[in-house]
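Could you join me in thinking about how sequence relates to backbone shape in a protein? We need material for that, and I hope you will provide a protein of your own picking. Once you have written the record down, we can walk along the chain together:

…
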Amino acid sequence: MQVQIFGTRSCKDTRKAERFFKERRVTIHFVDLKQKAASKGELRRFSQKFGVDALIDRDSRRFQNLGLRQAHYGEARWLEILADEPGILKTPLVRFGNHVTVGHAPDTWASWS
């Protein structure tokens, strides 16, 4: 079993996700969004299940600094913005095969094993 975690080291929920899987001896592939942004294709997997709005952290400082509070874009444009500006993503984004979660979801993660 190997999971892929997209997040940042400074995010509490991302660290909780890492700890959750490490405690269960699950192999983790961590993608630090500050070093490498998620691709549009990868983000599309999450948006297909949860919708693009679930991926956007509207309370983040970066979201406010970009002036996106009043923006009304389509899903394709939001995916482009999220790929270019990973600072406005809700993290962690966790993927195990075809299963995906957004944010801290230990109950869902536990059901994957």
Remarks:
- The chain has a mean pLDDT of 92.
